[in-house]
Write a structure and sequence with these properties.
278 residues, mainly alpha, 3-stranded mixed beta sheet, two-stranded antiparallel sheet
Amino acid sequence: MDSVTISKDTKSLFTSPPFKFIVADTPVYIHANLISQHSKPLERMINGHMAEAQQGFAVLKEVDEDTFIRFVQWAYKEYYSDAKHELKPNDDHEESTPSAKPVKKKKDSKKRPFSESWGYSDEDLGFSGTKRQDLKESFMKRTCTTRQSSITIPHPRANKDPTEDYTDVFLCHARLYVFADKYDIQSLKAQAFGELQLTLASYTLYPERTGDIVALMHYIYANTGEPVAGVEDLRTLLTAYMSYEMDVLMKDKAFKELMIEDGGALLGDFMGVVEKRI
């Protein structure tokens, strides 16, 4: 029987000594050469003249344990497991959602502008036409090249009802993207981007669940920089998502408050979306 030939490079990955990272007070071990293969900044901690190389371990203070474990999983398997959604009753979102019970309209009620505080109507923003559908189809047609070469990655689970909280699902991809960007792990960064895009594309934005998206926006704009012209990143991804889900998001109180709180890049990107819709 022919023996399977293993390259020297592959052997070196698994015969190299494990290096210890301490994340959230938890020691996590990974083969040193595997780290070196994926990240130059982390490689310098292991083999350079930094204190970490001399002491034989590194403390990573700006990453949570789950994110780093997903990185380790990806380093060995070329994919990672996403977070699981939580089940929450609808009354957790009383401020931003309508009552589950049918409400009778007052006789003098009239169709109000899309959002009184924004000053635009549904017609102004093109929600009554085909523009929203075109934007949604464009978003959903985006492809993830890293996924095409890896048949082992399961497709993201689509949410089924308003009780399913996807905040942790969204944030696990965003956090991994930010980690990969910081430590120059480009293939992981691309995969995290693609997984978040696919998850958003299959996600039904119920009015009760706008908080999931608001939490994602808050994290991304607090932890990423301005986009580079012509390069897609998490901010451009969210901008594209906002463009077709604006009718739901603008009715949410927390979304409006985030716009006011940010008052900068997020508000600017949002107004850019509004201008394109008018």
